[in-house]
TrEMBL record:
Protein's UniProt name: Fructose-1,6-bisphosphatase class 1
Predominant subcellular localization, coarse grouping: cytoplasm
SUPFAM superfamilies: Carbohydrate phosphatase (SSF56655)
Fructose-1-6-bisphosphatase class 1 C-terminal domain sequence ranges: 218-344
Gene assigned in the entry: fbp
Length: 348
């Protein structure tokens, strides 16, 4: 069997004995006593949808799929924006597999209650997702990602899901992950037992365990924030940015900002760093969505030994009040996020 593994110099080489994602899911399923396998089947469905979306994302530069929804391509077919396409693929894959009772997506105004087929109401999980985050980067060939999050429903089985099933604090997540469509495509996820990353071998369409037990370093040297908004930031964030730039100890830090959350997060988790999308006078609640972006990334960050905050407290303890709620987001290496919180606290 040919597999991929991460070797010392960070390049991927083919090597024997690495697990496929499929093998890993089966192995982990056996670790959860009394589990019915539903969660494993959800991860499996996401794996399939990710491969389909990956295929389209990689063709985006070749085929005239890039462009506004509603326009027609040269064959006279309706064009679909890639984020709309990704939304449909993930939703349809989850519905077809009959494994979830509800889905909420950043692309849809309201949640979807799945109760068309007998038994759907008896599924116990809901999935929340951002099907193609950072999609404005597609047109310029920059990495984008899918973010997903899984919760156990709180309303009784056998009844249609309600808003309550989706408005759960992040610490109730049973799984979360992301797919990064980058120089290589990876699926990174956690079920609350650490974080593992799988790299797609596009030649055979198989994900292999390439980044087992991913961990943030406690400190890092990268700060990621859209500094173009500097003058609109709260004073605590301004002061923290100045602190990052100061020549002292291991500073100044390096500034890296792709503008694609999954990519910025992924780099910082591997190299050590902090990602910040704060409030600003232009966006009083920040830009990122609590349910589709911040909670899943926070769960992954914490499982990797990192920290995720709204500047004052733990992201995963926020009680959501609406599906598309936005929150400020500080996420990354534990000591860096803690330091940013210190600066924020001065102006609370
Ligand atoms: P989107 O969900 O509309 O794609 O927006 C989220 C994206 C994140 O991926 C990224 O970190 C952020 O928006 C960048 O925003 P900005 O361009 O304001 O810096
Ligand atoms: Mg998004």
């Amino acid at each position: 069997m040919i597999n991929i593994c991460n070797c010392k110099n960070d390049t991927l080489i083919m090597k024997d004995r690495n697990k496929t994602l499929g093998e890993f899911i089966i192995e982990k399923q056996e670790e959860f006593k009394y589990s019915s396998g539903e969660l494993s089947r959800i991860i499996n469905a996401i794996r399939l949808a990710a491969k389909v979306v990956n295929y389209k994302v990689n063709k985006a530069g070749l085929v005239d799929i890039v462009g506004a929804a509603g326009e027609q391509n040269i064959q006279g077919e309706d064009q679909q924006k890639l984020d709309v396409y990704a939304n449909e693929v993930f939703i349809q894959t989850l519905i077809n597999r009959e494994i979830v009772c509800g889905i909420a997506s950043e692309e849809n105004d309201d949640f979807i209650a799945i109760h068309g087929k007998a038994g759907d109401d008896n599924n116990k999980y809901v999935v929340l997702m951002d099907p193609l985050d950072g999609s404005s980067n597609i047109d310029v060939n920059v990495s984008v990602g899918t973010i997903f999050s899984v919760y156990r429903r709180v309303t009784p089985m056998g009844t249609p899901v309600t808003l309550e099933d989706f408005l759960q604090p992040g610490d109730q997540q049973v799984a979360a992950g992301y797919v990064i469509y980058g120089t290589s495509t990876m699926l990174v996820y956690t079920t609350g037992h650490g974080v593992n990353g799988f790299t797609l071998n596009p030649a055979i369409g198989t994900f292999y365990l390439s980044h087992p037990n991913m961990k943030y370093s406690k400190d890092g040297k990268i700060y990621s924030v859209n500094e173009g908004n500097y003058i609109h930031f709260p004073q605590g964030v301004k002061d923290y940015i100045k602190y990052c730039q100061m020549e002292e100890g291991d500073r100044p830090y390096t500034s890296r900002y792709i503008g694609s959350l999954v990519s910025d997060f992924h780099r910082n988790m591997i190299k050590g760093g902090v990602y910040i999308y704060p409030t600003s006078s232009k966006a009083p609640n920040g830009k990122l969505r609590l349910l589709y972006e911040c909670n899943p990334m926070a769960f992954i960050a914490e499982q990797a030994g990192g920290k995720a905050s709204d500047g004052y407290g733990r992201i995963m303890e926020i009680q959501p009040t609406e599906l598309h709620q936005r929150v400020p987001f500080f996420c990354g290496s534990e000591n860096m996020v803690a330091k940013a919180e210190e600066f924020m606290a001065k102006y609370k």
